[in-house]
Amino acid sequence: MKRKPTTKQAVQRSLLDIVARGCREAREATSEYSRDTAMARAHGAITLAYYSDVIDQKSYNALWDLASNARSQRATEMIYDQKPYTGAQFAESRWKSGKAAA
User: Fold this and answer.
1) Is pLDDT above 90 for 27?
2) pTM of the model
């Protein structure tokens, strides 16, 4: 028989979903405003999770750095007018274009 999740687990899951969505949106943003808004949303969810004892200090620091890094990496890409890095497909296309150039 499968155990029902506790309230703390359900809250933890929903807050971490908000954090993940905020980091992804910050990483794939097309404007400075949307990038900063997504990071602020992720930071708010991280802070709420920490103060409601859903995550510990170590997790808080790691998630905070993750959200901040997503924003700063996208900011660097926007400065150099690059497309957002969107995962394995982007890496594979870069690898193929580098291989074709060589």
Assistant:
1) no
2) 0.73
